[in-house]
From TrEMBL:
Keyword field contains Transmembrane helix: yes
Name the UniProt record assigns to this protein: DUF2079 domain-containing protein
Residues spanning the membrane: 32-50, 115-135, 142-161, 189-216, 222-242, 283-303, 323-342, 354-376
Keywords from the named record: Membrane, Transmembrane, Transmembrane helix
InterPro entries linked: STSV1_Orf64
Biased composition (Pro residues): 491-502
Region Disordered, annotated ranges: 478-502
């Protein structure tokens, strides 16, 4: 039997297991809809994130960290991030060489805002494949509802409401890959998924999940290649590359994934996935915008690696809806939603007719109902649209800091300076006495890494050892060490709890 005969037999068997679904060609009058949805989302995201930055609502941990990494690439030094420690290589924290893609743009516009605009574009463009699939299979109304449902989902709101993160590169790659899976374009699905291994070390397992889906539903050779490539890449990064570049000589987050000092009890593993109740709430909220229908799609297999490590972790920060951890799941959930509805329309009887008809209005209603509980609700408040005098005062004080100065800054002030100064966080992990300048927000400190009282005491200590106040306005205080003077090294400050888990 020839190879071509085997391939034909495999193709016939697969088609018999799952009949192909013919999608309607896109009408010329409606083919712009996916891109119109993406453009709308981009404008909303860009305004929201940049405005937060202008109002001093972004932070050194994490926007400042990633800008220092991108700036390092742009200047040919590699991603050295002083905010995490002297000479700290960001590739030893998380394996994210994809950040280097922003370096050419940073040459043209060296600003933290560049990272925010890039994030807005990458997250928005992920709506294109999802809404385009919905357009072909369900029509223009569905394309708009599902595209905006994805774009306004709480997982993206939580991510965009907390600075910039490397996973922004993963969101469109996953969206294009999962929609290709749904349309049975196996090579395209794996091609879109493969670069995920350059975004973060755990995403190789997501690539393996894409391969497993292809192995199960389609081409065995392509699927097996995806599984081997994804697992191999994650193992290489976790066991070789990250330890080689980490200051500690090992992956820094093993403890978060170990299940505690005693490890995991296999007998209680199912219970560990849903307790405490915060875990179950997160899973239900993931499915809620699809009125739970996404769970009927086999595409949800691709979400299992990310959900698995989060729910089995011993770090509570991973269990809930905060931060950026759910952003990579939203395109999977909405692609699964499209998959279920397209199959229901093509075959009939898969879902009760009333369920199919009610699904889109219900999805829109749930999306709107969840909005007030997450970061996008800030768009509807007056605070985001006006600039307080305190913010104007901060800009004026920061303008007095010379370029290339070494400065210790309060966490909220760090990303206002990382494009032109050598910045460390005031209080941790490096000693503020190694900096020539200090700038703090004494009236409204974030409370991390130092409590408000501790921050005030540290400022008083800096004054006692010779730092002089240059300017102070609305609680934004700028101090300078007089040139040519030596300042005693500040005592160690206890390591604080991180504002998020990495």
């Amino acid at each position: 039997m020839t190879i071509s005969t085997l391939t034909s037999a495999l193709h016939r068997r697969t088609e018999a297991d799952e009949p192909s679904i013919t999608l309607s060609p896109v009408d010329r009058r409606t083919r712009f809809i996916p891109w119109a949805v993406a453009l709308t989302l981009f404008l909303v995201y860009a305004f929201f994130t940049v405005r937060r930055h202008e109002l001093l609502l972004t932070s050194g941990y994490d926007l400042g960290i990633f800008e220092q990494g991108v700036r390092g690439y742009a200047e040919g030094r590699g991603p050295i991030v002083e905010l995490k420690g002297a000479g700290f290589n960001l590739l030893g924290d998380h394996f994210s060489p994809a950040l280097a893609a922003l370096a050419p743009l940073y040459w043209l516009w060296p600003s933290a805002k560049l990272l925010l605009f890039a994030q807005a574009a990458l997250v928005a463009v992920a709506a294109v494949p999802i809404s385009r699939w919905a357009l072909r299979g369900l029509g223009p109304v569905a394309a708009v509802v599902i595209g905006l449902g994805y774009g306004l989902s709480w997982g993206l709101a939580s991510a965009l409401g907390f600075d910039f993160h490397e996973i922004t590169f993963a969101v469109p790659l996953i969206a294009f890959s999962v929609t290709a899976l749904g349309e049975r374009r196996w090579v395209a699905a794996l091609a879109w998924a493969a670069p995920l291994v350059l975004v973060k070390e755990d995403l190789g397992i997501t690539v393996a999940a894409v391969g497993a889906y292809i192995l199960w539903r389609g081409d065995r050779r392509i699927g097996a290649a995806g599984v081997l490539f994804g697992v191999g890449a994650s193992l290489l990064e976790l066991l070789v590359l990250l330890p080689a570049m980490s200051p500690g000589g090992s992956f820094a987050y093993w403890d978060n994934l170990s299940g505690g000092s005693g490890g995991r009890n296999l007998l209680t593993l199912p219970l560990d996935l849903v307790t405490p109740s915060e875990k179950l709430t997160t899973v239900l909220l993931l499915l809620a915008p699809t009125v739970l229908l996404a769970v009927r799609s086999p595409l949800m297999i691709v979400a299992l690696p990310t959900l698995g490590w989060r729910l089995l972790s011993n770090n509570p920060a991973y269990w809930g809806t905060n931060y950026h951890y759910s952003a990579v799941l939203m395109p999977i959930v909405f692609a699964a939603f499209v998959d279920v509805l397209v199959k229901a329309r093509a075959r009939g009887g898969v879902l009760p007719r009333w369920v199919s008809r009610a699904a889109l209005p219900a999805s829109l209603a749930v999306t709107l109902a969840l909005l007030p509980g997450f970061a996008f609700s800030q768009l509807l408040t007056a605070d985001l649209w006006r600039t307080p005098a305190r913010v104007e005062a901060a800009r004026s004080v920061l303008a007095a800091v010379p370029d290339d100065a070494r400065i210790a800054a309060s966490n909220r002030l760090v990303p206002q300076l990382t494009n032109r100064c050598e910045v460390i966080v005031f209080g941790w992990p490096q000693k503020w006495s190694t900096a020539d300048w200090i700038v703090v927000d004494e009236d409204q400190p974030m409370g991390w890494p130092l409590s408000p009282d501790r921050e005030r005491r540290e400022v008083a200590a800096a004054k006692r050892v010779g730092y002089q106040v240059v300017r102070s306005d609305h609680g934004i205080t700028l101090l300078r060490r007089p040139p040519g003077t030596d300042v005693p090294v500040a005592p160690d400050v206890p390591a604080p709890g991180s504002p998020e888990a990495g």
